[in-house]
Amino acid sequence: xRYTKQNEWVLDTFLGSGTTLIECKRLGRNGIxxxxxxxxxxxxxKNISKERNAFDVKTEIITADSTELCYEEVLKxxxxxxxxxxxxxxPYWDIIKFSDDPSDLSNEKxxxxxxxxMRQLIEKSYPVLDKGRYCALVIGDKYSGxxxxxxxxxxxxxxxxxxxxxxxxV
Length: 170
Fold this sequence. Notes:
Elements: E1 9-12, H1 19-27, E2 30-35, H2 38-49, E3 59-63, H3 71-78, E4 83-88, H4 111-125, E5 129-137, E6 142-144, E7 147-149, H5 151-161
């Protein structure tokens, strides 16, 4: 409600179990969800289908590596030019391994490789976000070998380097 209005478009680059698209249906927003895992997509589709579509909004689900997509082409196929909110809730690097797929961010071998893939995603998705609108990054930090790794802050830096402005940290 704070960042979008009814009938606007929300892009979720890491669909997971489908929570973002469920909330889109509840609040009257159109939603696009992307996930690399076909099994996760099946779960999300099942969860999303249970939600009543009181607002007659559109829901698009795409099985793909979100870091490799051409977002302009994705939106063109849907029949829109831009989105009004992007939500990114990537795996917290390798804390939980979500699949054996090498393109799954939870399988990246190093922090730099994880951040490199996030850079790709940020650069590819930024052009389809309406000017003056928002991208929400949901990410946690991790501990490894007795060291705190501020994954959230490192990832936020990648956004800032690519033209985003930080509005808040929650």
